[in-house]
Specification:
- By secondary structure, the protein is an alpha/beta fold.
- The chain folds into 2 domains: 26-163, Immunoglobulin-like (Sandwich), CATH 2.60.40; 169-403, 3-Layer(aba) Sandwich (Aminopeptidase).
- The protein is 33% helix and 25% strand.
- It has 9 helices and 18 strands.
- The chain has helices spanning 2-12, 15-19, 151-154, 196-213, 230-239, 273-288, 299-329, 365-372, 374-403; strands spanning 26-27, 34-37, 48-53, 60-65, 70-76, 78-79, 96-103, 106-112, 117-125, 132-139, 175-180, 190-191, 194-195, 217-220, 244-249, 261-266, 334-342, 354-358.
- Strand 9 and strand 10 (132-139) form a beta hairpin.
- Helix 1 (2-12) crosses helix 7 (299-329) and helix 4 packs across helix 9 (374-403).
- The model is unreliable at 14-23, 160-168 and 273-305 (pLDDT under 50).
- Residues 234-389 form the MurNAc-LAA domain.
- Residues 1-26 form the signal peptide.
């Protein structure tokens, strides 16, 4: 009955908003978008690439203007409300970026460039689920620079930074549950003299400090080398009012079977061999304590929990995309299939978006060296902190649409 009551409470917050979702404008996936530069920074202008990842293709135009040199990107039917240019990966490669509404139905992105450039490529892929507007820029000499002849006409109604409302920080009130796997009498996987339990605890403590520095609330399922049952871990997250549950692991699989970071979302039908092997490792601890989370649910409760997951599951998958996109941009080694599904018990919660992140595999020498390297961990901490902030902003925008 407690399970049924919990699910009913979750559903009260889901049913009405889902019935009232209006058709929204196209959205920019800020977590997957980026501005990158080729080669090393030697104090000279470098070729750059601006990638804007959208949830659907939109009409656009691209051109350059002078005094100062700027790239202008106009897009029709896209909503940039609540997204800050400073959240774009690579924004610090140029003097300034700003955006806002250009005219009714159109938004404009203005990128101030460090030198004269020319557009060598501007195209939009229309493939679902994430069309990409890709703009390549190459530095040129001043005499070869070819901006629009009339900058004044081209920039009419240009958004001014001071006129763009600064949204409330998306991390305000956000609570993240960090779940370092294993612990206590269960060290998890072992390799090269290191244990999974200690490695993921070290990482989780570093990630907690980074999140708290950004004003994000954090609840830890364990803060030392102690054992916490799987059921207790999800209960702690729920009791703390967590908005996101992130379970951290660094498992072992037979040699050559897995390497690189991998993120898992819930799927009770997942039948991939590695996922089955990992599930048996993750869940053996509760069976030792007589806690069987795989028992039969009441039929009605099962149906209601499945319905609740129609809201939480897509949100978990969106977060997984934020993480893997940011990892790729930061050069973090990824598994060949970085986003996978599995029936891990810590992902079962119907009311909290939940993912399990294998930071790497302790059975792989390169992954193990990364996990022991403070500089690599620092990069991964930045990836996750940025991803959580980006996901929180996406959540806030989603909720604003639901309220309309």
């Amino acid at each position: 009955m407690r399970r049924l009551a919990l699910v009913l409470a979750v559903l009260l917050g889901l049913i009405v908003p889902q019935l009232s979702v209006a058709q929204a404008m196209a959205d920019l996936n800020i977590g997957a978008s980026s501005l990158t530069a080729e080669g090393r920074d030697r104090g000279k202008p470098r070729p750059m690439d601006l990638r804007l990842v959208l949830d659907r293709a939109v009409p656009y135009r691209v051109f350059l203007v002078d005094d100062p040199v700027r790239l202008i990107v106009d897009m029709k039917g896209i909503d940039l409300t609540g997204i800050r240019p400073s959240d774009l990966f690579g924004h610090d490669l140029v003097p300034a970026i700003r955006w806002g509404e250009f005219r009714r139905g159109w938004s404009r992105i203005v990128v101030e460039l460090p030198a004269p450039y020319r557009v060598t490529r501007a195209g939009q892929t229309t493939r679902a689920p994430e069309p990409v507007l890709d703009i390549a820029l190459e530095p040129v000499d001043r005499e070869d620079f070819q901006p629009r002849p009339s900058a004044t006409a081209a920039l009419r109604n240009l958004p001014v930074p001071a006129e763009i409302e600064t949204p409330e920080a998306p991390s305000e009130g956000l609570v993240v549950a960090l779940d370092p796997g294993h612990g206590g009498f269960d060290p998890g996987a072992e390799g090269g003299g290191a244990t999974e339990a200690n490695l993921v605890l070290t990482f989780a403590l570093e990630l907690r400090a980074a999140l708290q520095a950004r004003g994000i609330g954090v609840v830890m399922t364990r803060e030392d080398d102690s054992f916490v049952s799987l059921e207790r871990r999800t209960t702690m997250a729920r009791d703390a009012g967590a908005d996101l549950f992130l379970s951290l692991h660094a498992d072992a699989l037979p040699s050559g079977q897995a390497a690189g970071a991998t993120i898992y979302t819930w799927d009770p039908k997942a039948d991939e061999r590695a996922a089955r092997q990992l599930a048996s490792r993750h869940e053996r601890d509760d069976l030792m304590w007589g806690v069987d989370l795989g028992g039969e649910d009441d039929d009605l409760a099962t149906v209601l929990m499945d319905f609740a997951r129609t809201d939480t599951q897509p949100r978990s998958e969106v977060f997984a995309k934020f993480v893997t996109s940011r990892m790729a941009l930061m050069g973090i080694g990824l598994h060949g299939r970085p986003v996978q599904k599995a029936a891990f018990s810590v992902l079962k919660s119907p009311d909290i978006p939940s993912v399990l992140l294998e930071l790497g595999f302790i059975s792989d020498a390169v992954d193990r060296a990364n996990l022991l390297d403070p500089s690599w961990r620092s990069r991964m901490v930045t990836v996750l902190a940025d991803s959580i902030v980006g996901w929180a902003r996406d959540e806030k925008a989603r909720k604003s649409v639901l309220r309309r």
